[in-house]
Specification:
There is one protein chain. It contains three helices and 21 strands. It folds into three domains: 63 residues, no CATH class; 84 residues, no CATH class; 112 residues, Immunoglobulin-like, CATH 2.60.40. Strand 16 and strand 17 form a beta hairpin. By secondary structure, the chain is mainly β.
Length: 286
């Protein structure tokens, strides 16, 4: 991907020098096919720039494009007892067992090290220039964990019916429902609690709407605080009791520029780059 400072296609055709844009292709649904093309571009207020996308066989394209270092990483592995995520400054892990607590790895130099920590035989408790586990969680709550207050003591929420995990990829304006899960069953006559996360990149997130009738009607979700400019933002809602039977739950995000997730993907490229079709879950009310 390249960009020029031209504001029209005609002007762009006469530009000899362009700037390559950092970009990556993401597989959002795990089917080993590209679903979106994410890139970074600098824009001044009210500026228009022409972006050119070149595609073709991977062995040819990779000779043309630059190499951009990863800035974050996320893994799930038994070696670190669950989910891990990191920036080049710090790494974290969530114990995927009855401890249910978050642990911290410190790094003396900026680097990505989770894959090393997860290597069989590697002892991440010992000091190393690559960093180490610096917090002994044991029976504590780590640096963050759900807990119950029992007889004056914080107790782990350990006995649960189900544990699941998911690495969410960044992309265009998007809302992802994290609860309930696809295939859910809920009691008839009771309100339906929904929660998830939404992301809108450089443009502020304006709203998240939810529907349980195929998009005929929508209910606004409550947005949680924004932890960082480009972070995913939590949303929650309690929907009026859906009618008994099969139900489809839809989440749709919109940004401050008026862009909203489409209900359907474009017919000519349903699995194409930048596809940010609404998230749908199916379940039963019984």
């Amino acid at each position: 991907m390249t960009a020029s400072d031209a504001s029209t296609v005609a002007e762009d055709a006469s530009v000899l020098h362009t700037t390559e844009l950092p970009s990556q292709v993401d597989d959002l649904d795990g089917d080993f096919k590209p679903d979106e093309l994410a890139f970074q571009i600098d824009l001044k207020p009210h500026q228009t720039r022409i972006v050119t996308i070149t595609w073709g066989a991977a062995d040819r394209i990779f000779r043309l494009r630059g190499d951009y270092e990863k800035q974050t990483n996320a893994i799930f592995t038994r070696k670190i007892d669950g989910m891990g995520w990191e920036s080049k400054r710090n790494a974290f892990r969530l114990y995927f067992d009855k401890r249910n607590a978050i642990d911290l790895y410190g790094k003396p130099r900026p680097s990505l090290q989770l894959d090393r920590y997860a290597t069989p035989g590697y002892i991440y408790h010992n000091y190393s220039p690559d960093g180490r586990d610096i917090y002994l969680v044991a029976d504590a709550l780590g640096i963050g964990a759900p807990a119950g207050w029992v007889n004056g003591t914080a107790e782990h929420v350990a006995e649960v019916d189900d544990r699941s995990w998911r690495i969410i990829s960044a992309g265009p304006v998007r809302a992802v429902i994290t609860s309930p899960q696809d295939g859910f069953a809920a009691a008839a006559g009771a309100p339906l609690a929904v929660r998830g996360h939404a992301w809108s990149g450089h443009t502020p997130l304006a709203k998240v709407e939810l529907s349980c009738d195929g998009g005929r009607s929508w209910q606004a979700a409550q947005l949680g605080p924004l932890p960082d400019t480009f972070a995913w933002r939590r949303f929650t809602a309690v929907l009026a009791a859906p009618p008994a039977g099969a139900v489809e739950l839809i989440a749709r995000a919109s940004d401050a520029a008026g862009r909203a997730q489409p209900l359907e993907s474009v017919p000519w490229n349903p699995k194409g780059y930048g596809n940010n079709t609404v998230h749908r879950l199916r379940g039963r009310i019984e």
